[in-house]
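Researcher: Structure prediction, please.
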Amino acid sequence: MNVVSGRTASLRNAIQNETIQKMKATELLHNLGQSLWLDNITRDLLNSGTLKRYIDELSVTGLTSNPTIFDHAIKNSTAYDAVIRDKLEQGKSGEALFFQLALEDIIRAADLFRPTFDKTNGVDGWVSLEVSPLLAYDATSTLAAARELRARAARPNVFIKIPGTKEGLSAIEEAIFAGIPVNVTLLFSREHYVAAADAFLRGIERRIAAGLKPDVASVASVFVSRWDTAVSGKVPAPLNNQLGIAVANRTYAAYRELLCSPRWQRAYNAGARPQRLLWASTGTKDPKAPDVLYVKALAAPFTVNTMPEATLNALADHGELGSIMAADGGNCEAVLGQFAQAGVKVEILAAQLQNEGAKSFVKSWNELLAVIASKSEALQQAA
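Model: Predicted structure follows.
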């Protein structure tokens, strides 16, 4: 290499390094190959243009919702009042009124993400709406609700969220077989993920056998931070905020192993698309821990991270990321061994967390319907 070409290469590298340093961490994560989704939706976010700004400036390419999010959205805003009043005059109330409100928000968000959906050929640009959490242990009713919500949304980039409970697995398989894109929620462990992935693949394999197109999209949502909340104060200090990440790494290893399996490759050769692994519950709960603890620890291509607004904005303020996740899970088994020595039984705790998660969504659901009922009564009295 001569002096001139050497200086040119050095200058080019310097410019590239400077460009990288100026990038927001959200853009760096997106460029790594991980999709950043917002775990929130409110009418104020839509009306103010904030969601559009997150798409344009913070590399957000999708959105998730749940009963708790809608409970907070409707409870803490007057943005829904006029619509509630109109729907009451049309005879809507209770659960029917809620889904009308939720679908309006979901459809608007889906339309904002439609360019991303089209650009990525349906890999990204998704929004998620959950069936009633009261159906978490009723497979038949869950499938019926999924069909109805999908039809009412009438958008190709809407996932229907179905809990990955034991009873929900058959509903997941049937929904995939019916061609309904599914976001499998309330997964906590490797075993939960493997069961959900198996249900997804069974649905895909049945479509292939029936001569149907197998390219039905799905994500498997694994909740992370709740592990650390569950053992807070119950394990030695050096293990604080390490359990969720270790379980996630163990799950990621199973995900990568599945993608290399002959079973998946046969489905892929027939035209199926992978069920992507999604990290949920990635907001830091411990005030002593870094605000982007889980985001940095769970950076990996071909995955999704859906994060609360505060975490998204905190990430945007950072200019660097850590190392990407190891395909074999790294040292997760050693870390989990330390938790076992401290008395933490991961499989038992996983079942407990899934059960508590389902109960939490039911609680939020009931509170949500109570908020709608009280707002409805107040608006009718004010009319």
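Model: Residues 1-5, 10-21 have pLDDT under 50 and may be disordered.
Researcher: Thanks, that helps.
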